[in-house]
Amino acid sequence: MANWNLQEAVSAWMDVHHPRNNPLAMRFIQDITIGEGESVPPSTPFTKTWRIRNSGVEVWPPGCTLRFTDGDQLSHHTAVAVGQVGPGQEVDISVDMASPPEMGMYQGKWRMCNPGGNFFGDAIWVIICVERGGVLAVTQQLNSSSFDFQQNTSGEGSVEGGGGCNPFNMGME
Fold first, then answer.
1. Where are the beta strands (DSSP E) in 63-103?
2. Distance (Å, rounded) from C-alpha 30 to C-alpha 36?
3. Where are the beta strands (DSSP E) in the chain?
4. Model pLDDT, residue 164
């Protein structure tokens, strides 16, 4: 018994004698915006969106939040409210963030939390690479533009509702 760890022994005893009965569950489905390791210019605001699923058997009660738990805090928000989500339902959760001014890799871990303060489900991450040539600015402009392309049979190009905006030709007309 020379190589035993008191903390592990107590934790094992607690798991056997006081099992956690948290029926809430969450599964990460996919990154909607800002994939893992995406290149972002310094000091650039962006919105990170994850798609998650209630993989449990109960509706998430009012007061559940997505909370920042570890790593680089890229948002001034430490928690985001999540509405009631039924079993099997998927929801997109967005957090406004900004890249740091210094170059490098940054990552932050977020977890779902019930109203009592207990974490549940998968950990989800934001992982970015801050570099001068980051492509985030262009991709967010494309995602946020609401172009209405209409079929044109006259052979001439036309974009309706876009205001003549070309994200690759901004301010050059």
1. 65-71, 79-81, 90-98
2. 10
3. 26-31, 38-40, 45-54, 65-71, 79-81, 90-98, 104-113, 119-130
4. 35
**Rounded distance, CA 68 to CA 52, Å?**
16
Give the whole-angstrom CA distance, residue 154 versus residue 13: 77
pLDDT digits (tens, 9 = 90+) for 26-55: 999 999 999 898 999 999 999 999 999 999
Contacts of 69 (CB under 8 A, 6+ apart): 109, 110, 111, 119, 123
Burial 43-74 (b: 16+ CB within 10 A, else e): ebebebebebbbbbeeebeeebbbbbeeebeb
Integer Cα distance of 68 and 114 in angstroms: 14
Q: Say if strands 38-40 and 119-130 run parallel, antiparallel, or are unpaired.
A: parallel
pLDDT at 154: 42
